[in-house]
Amino acid sequence: MAEKSRVCSVWVGSETGILKGVSLAKKQAFNFCEMSHLSREQEVCVLCWGDVHETEVLLGCANGEVKTFSTEKGVFTETRLCGQIDEGKFTGLAVVDSALVTSVESGLVKVWKEGSTDTVEINAGKSVCRMRQNPAQRHRVGTGGKENGLKVWDLERPDTPVFTAKNVRNDWLDLRVPEWVRDLAFVPDSDKIVTCTGHHQVRVYDPATPQRRPVLETQFGEYPLTALSLPASPVSVVVGNTQGQMAVLDLRKGLVCGSLKGLAGGVRELQCHPSLPLVASCGLDRFLRVHSLEDRSVQHKVRLGTLAWLWTLLSLCFRSSLLQECPATHQGDEAVKEEEHGGEDEVWDAMETVTEKASQRRKATEGFRDGAEKMAIKKKKVKK
Amino acid sequence: QTTEDIQSSKLKKKAKKQKKESKIAVQNAEQDANEPESVDSASAPVFPPTFSVSEIKNKQRRHLMFMRLKQEKRRVRLKKRRKEREALGDEAPPKPVPKTIENQRVYDETTVDPEDEEVAFDEGTDEFSAYFNRLTNPKVLITTSDRPRGRTVRFCQQLATIIPDSHVYYRRGLALKRIIPQCIARGFTYLIVINEDRKVPNGLVLCHLPDGPTAHFKVSSVRLRKEMKRRGKDPTKHTPEVILNNFTTRLGHSIGRMFAALFPHDPEFVGRQVATFHNQRDFIFFRFHRYIFKNEKRVGIQELGPRFTLKLRSLQKGTFDSKFGEYEWVHKVSLPLSRVKQSLYCPHITTVLLGVLYCDCFFKR
């Protein structure tokens, strides 16, 4: 069990309560479940890392329990009841200085301190679809939901949000534009926040500016965007929608750079690797796919048994294991580059100096010749 | 002159078949100065190098000559191969197997292993578990798109005779999202919406009601009872048996269960009626038959009822919500067309989920 869990580079939670560890080298998913009896109530809603060193995985289940799983030992170590079923499912989980922060669908964000039953409660609105933690300032948390705009909260001052986003202006029919924040992410090295909405919009907010409206807004597709992730480069964002279309958008201009193909069902969760240009996606088609962001091809595809509400976590150990798995490809790339460099010099030396005018003339004459032939053919046809 | 030419070309063909060379060849040589070389074609299979079939201006004759040329070449090639094979005797390499679509099928990795526990658990607790645990009986509401025309209306009525405990209601232009809560309140378990286009049914939305998945199909080749040849009398109200063929992948399992849950659990064998959903190459063929056992080994069947073909377009989790719903599977046309990879079926394992009867009786391969 411990060996299996150490090998796994991607962790996925499923609808039946099973935590799956995926080893990309072996292209296999290993199941880790606490008890022999599974139920839909144990559906994993949220996953997050328990600590900075990524040795523990915290799972938030539908019945309000938060379980701790140790990746080194390969067993579930702790269970904690953090909420009731009637409040709704977990929509966010975070760890702040050994305290647990949970948010539920009904809008309550609670901070559970270790050892004591006191909780600090924040009412983040009537619905919260996602809560995410700022990786740089770990006591800051962002929330967003249906008809509930983006709010950034400081957990040390839970009364009022640090930043409340304002809805965009009325559209061209002077109607209020509906809001539905499905996922959000904090851009590293700046204050900016990127959100994706259920109305297929991607918005960037900047709390550093006095403008509370989005700084950038773009649209992608016609279906609700369910997942968002920021890759290592700060310029782009990867989004996925309910039809399984995933795309890389550029945040400078708001244009689509390219789309990632292969998913047959809706995307539930996306995660980019912190340093490598890779993105893992899972969704309702029960597959975990790892795409490379450079050429947008599928690097790994692993079959998972059950579906839906899968969350993925990428880790730093992902990187090291990848290098072991694909040393061949890395070396191959380097070798290819060397060849290209060497090859280019030889080619340049071997080539004769060609003047531009001659080539232009050649092109022009060729063009004329082709054109003349075409005209001749046309004339012949007309005559006939 | 043209009719004479045609006749002459036909004569030439006959000459080749019967191998009467001299007389007719001479006659043809007089009539057609264009094709002196064709005389040779009657006797010798090889054309002289200066002549090519493409030089003949007459399309019909050119086609004929080309066909003849191809046949000759093929004959020569086969003869040569047969001679080589006989010459080698025992050392001859084995005959190559011709490529067919069935041969080239890519093994689908989502094929369900019958012993897979996870899938078994998944199916034990999914939206159909209430039906498969015998807690509920199906109650089906059949409706159409707004303002249906004759064929669709008759199709709905015939479907209602086939599916027990089903009711046909006129759509009245109501939104499906408003109909669904009302159906749930009245205890319906399924909603079938038949979409009509240009007076012909062309789509089917099958929505499992309490929370269940919604499948959207394309309907084609609808044959109503009147159009069936050698059909039996109208189906009785006995519950039919259900046969589900070739739903082997994970997606196939979900769709197969959807179809199974349309019909009540215990079929009434007195009625001797059977409904078949046969999946082949991602097309689902629906047939409704009445059978009778003549003796232990022989069965007679009569086709009753409508027949139609379905193709799955999308499977959406939750009740009908095409804008904001999450799709479990969507048919994407942009992917490279491959006849070889199919989503509902894998050829290595064939399972029949429900039903008692023989298989392969209806569709002879």
Features:
heterodimer; A: 384 residues; alpha+beta; four-stranded antiparallel β-sheet; 4 helices; 18% helix; globular; B: alpha/beta; 9 helices
Write the SSE topology.
The complex is a heterodimer of chains A (384) and B (365).
Chain A: H1 2-7, E1 10-13, E2 19-23, E3 28-32, E4 44-49, E5 56-61, E6 65-70, E7 75-81, E8 90-96, E9 99-104, E10 108-112, E11 119-123, E12 130-133, E13 140-145, E14 148-154, E15 163-164, E16 181-186, E17 193-197, E18 201-205, E19 216-219, E20 225-229, E21 236-241, E22 246-250, E23 256-260, E24 267-272, E25 278-283, E26 287-292, E27 298-303, E28 311-314, H2 316-325, H3 327-350, H4 356-383
Antiparallel strand pairs in A: 1-2, 1-28, 2-3, 4-5, 5-6, 6-7, 8-9, 9-10, 10-11, 12-13, 13-14, 14-15, 16-17, 17-18, 18-19, 20-21, 21-22, 22-23, 24-25, 25-26, 26-27
Chain B: H1 2-18, H2 22-31, H3 37-43, H4 59-88, H5 117-124, H6 129-132, E1 140-144, H7 150-162, E2 166-168, H8 176-185, E3 190-197, E4 200-208, E5 214-223, E6 241-245, H9 250-260, E7 273-280, E8 283-293, E9 299-317, E10 326-330
Parallel strand pairs in B: 1-2, 1-3, 6-7
Antiparallel strand pairs in B: 3-4, 4-5, 5-9, 7-8, 8-9, 9-10
Helix pairs in contact in B: 1-2, 1-3
Protein name (chain B): Ribosome production factor 1
Region (Disordered) (chain B): 1-55, 71-99
Organism (chain B): Scleropages formosus (Asian bonytongue)
